[in-house]
């Protein structure tokens, strides 16, 4: 049994079905890339895993515990963290302060900054700065970071919450080639200690990071396997890889 198991998931909006009997088993300490044409249901699937939306039917299990009906914050506390495509950082705070805010359960960022520093914070801070490569930018205001650095900071903020499973939505969108290369290194390092699910369109990037590629089409599972298997799969080529727009 995988660390995350999705069984027969369905989601409809106003009578329109967007997720159709979708099942997925994610193995611990692997990186699963979720790919497919626009409108395939990738982001909705991420919303359902994290409790941002509720399925019409189906079941989501974290190990053997059902999390289908839990709220977003409950699911986050159980160890599922998510980074959205558009980073949500505190632009007026430094890199260090952003990471400190993320480490605490306190809702108010400013209360966090002036309260007693929780145990383990400094060690965690050093660990995350090493992973993200932001050690040299620790006192820099987040609003002045490059696009890539902002993305790495938000990955760091999610990691400060110590998730077991990390969900990333198009993490390299808008990055330079150099930033993409660094992100490949970060994610390949992270999958030694975390399970990752990554929604991505950039197939060159997918080739560098994916252990398993899951292809969605019209809300359903089209195919799953290694990147080489997916590139050779006639169904995948027809609906996704063969389309010049993708």
Automatic annotation (TrEMBL):
Q: Which keywords are on file for this protein?
A: ATP-binding, Nucleotide-binding, Transport
InterPro entries xref list: AAA+_ATPase, ABC_AA/LPS_Transport, ABC_transporter-like_ATP-bd, ABC_transptr_urea_ATP-bd_UrtD, P-loop_NTPase
Domain called ABC transporter: residue spans: 4-243
Task: List the Pfam families hit by this protein, alphabetically.
Answer: ABC_tran (PF00005)
Matching SUPFAM superfamilies, A to Z? P-loop containing nucleoside triphosphate hydrolases
> What are the GO MF terms of this UniProt record?
ATP binding; ATP hydrolysis activity
Q: Which CDD domains match?
A: ABC_Mj1267_LivG_branched (cd03219)
Record's superkingdom? Bacteria
Gene Ontology cellular component list: plasma membrane
NCBIfam families on file: urea_trans_UrtD
> Per its UniProt record, what PANTHER family does this chain match?
CONSERVED COMPONENT OF ABC TRANSPORTER FOR NATURAL AMINO ACIDS-RELATED, HIGH-AFFINITY BRANCHED-CHAIN AMINO ACID TRANSPORT ATP-BINDING PROTEIN
Under what name is this protein listed? Urea ABC transporter ATP-binding protein UrtD
Gene that this sequence comes from: urtD
């Amino acid at each position: 049994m995988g660390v995350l198991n999705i069984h027969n998931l369905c989601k409809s909006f106003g009578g329109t079905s967007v997720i159709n009997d979708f099942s997925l088993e994610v193995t611990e300490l692997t990186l699963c890339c979720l790919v497919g044409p626009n409108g395939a249901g990738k982001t909705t699937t991420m919303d359902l895993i994290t409790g941002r939306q509720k399925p019409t039917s189906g079941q989501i299990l974290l190990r053997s515990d059902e999390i289908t009906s839990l709220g977003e914050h409950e699911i986050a506390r159980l160890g599922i963290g998510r980074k959205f495509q558009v980073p949500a950082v505190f632009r007026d705070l430094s890199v260090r302060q952003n990471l400190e805010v993320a480490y605490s359960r306190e809702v108010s960022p400013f209360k966090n900054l002036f309260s007693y520093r929780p145990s383990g914070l400094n060690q965690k801070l050093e660990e995350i700065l090493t992973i993200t490569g932001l050690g040299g930018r620790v006192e820099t205001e987040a609003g002045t970071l490059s696009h890539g650095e902002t993305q790495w900071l938000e990955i760091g903020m999610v990691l400060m919450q110590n998730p077991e499973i990390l969900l990333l939505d198009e993490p390299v969108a808008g990055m330079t080639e150099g930033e993409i290369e660094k992100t490949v290194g970060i994610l390949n390092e992270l999958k030694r200690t975390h399970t990752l699910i990554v929604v991505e369109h950039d197939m060159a990037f997918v080739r560098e990071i994916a252990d398993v590629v899951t292809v969605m089409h019209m809300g359903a599972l089209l195919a799953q396997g290694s990147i080489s298997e997916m590139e050779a799969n006639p169904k995948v080529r027809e609906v996704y890889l063969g389309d010049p727009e993708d």
